Amino acid sequence: MRAAVLHEIGQDKLEVLDDVETVGFGPGKVKIRVRATGLCHSDVSAMNGVLPQPAPFIPGHEGAGEIVDVGDGVSGISQGDRVLVCWLPACGQCPACKRGQSQLCLAGFMNAGTPNFKRPGGDVFGFAGTGTFTEEVVVDAGCAVPIPDDVPFDIAALIGCGVTTGLGAAINTAKVEAGSSVAVIGCGGVGVSAIQGARLKGAAQIIAVDPVASRREAALRFGATEAVAPDELADAKQRITAGEGFDYVFEVVGKSATARTAYETTRRGGTLCVVGAGAMDDNLQLNMFELFFDEKKILPSMYGGGDVLQSYERAIALWRAGRIDLESLITHRVPLSEINEALDQMRTGVALRTCIEI
Q1: pTM of the full predicted structure?
Q2: pLDDT at position 57 over 80
Q3: C-alpha 228: how far from chain center
Q4: Span of 75-79, 100-104, 242-246, 277-281 with lowest mean pLDDT
Q5: 125, 170, 218, 287: which has the fewest Cβ within 10 Å?
């Protein structure tokens, strides 16, 4: 079958091959025929080594498709069911799950070290234990979440990661209050979803911050009240908040430099919500006096900071009601054979989300 493979960490292009096979199917597993998958910045971060991932590997974790086979012991899912891929399934048994923090369950991460593909030359891993830049993938049954018939595969794929992450950051983690002021730094698919979440919660001012003009323009369509380039943020802070800072600032880039800017842009007593996934050796520096004196809340948000199954259902309900716009998040579409074009669209910032149709 066809799949897009990264042979070595640090390479900037994927090779689309037709000699890849799935492995690992058996009890507790399902095989999914992938129909649509989004390109998320985390895929690029894994390719360049920012996020740890063994190679060779198949990127992709934001996917949807149909069940083609079900292993022994799997219940609730049948051949032919339409599903989205959950890259971080909850085991339901660990301390994090029992505390109601299933987004912190580590069971799904254990799959990342087990290859679920192979080629004639050896094993191939799937990114984050999934790997959706392929025609078929074998995953734990918990990774396959049934979706209603009225939800298209491309929309379901977005809900599987970017939409859930961005909406959840605003709704679950930061708990944006009505009438508040918000700044979102980084306005790709996740950032725009955070903007939509802040709008849903009734934020009065939502400032989108991004260096790419097309993304700033898009952010206005999704609910931002103003959009500025990074070098205009200080002026916006002064003009909108009289220099005090915003009530909520979302960092959706994953770099210490932007996190530091976000901290400085947050008012005393306000909330900095860290959504971007960064490198282990990129350290954010805060001095102990400012940490104490400013009393700013620093809230990391992992996968939307809440129960992902509930978050999926909420996103679908909001989409059906016309309260969030998911169709417009997909600005580009390419076949799997043109996956490197999708990577270019991501790196240059021209795309909010590129859908790879398989």
Answers
A1: 0.95
A2: yes
A3: 23
A4: 100-104
A5: 287
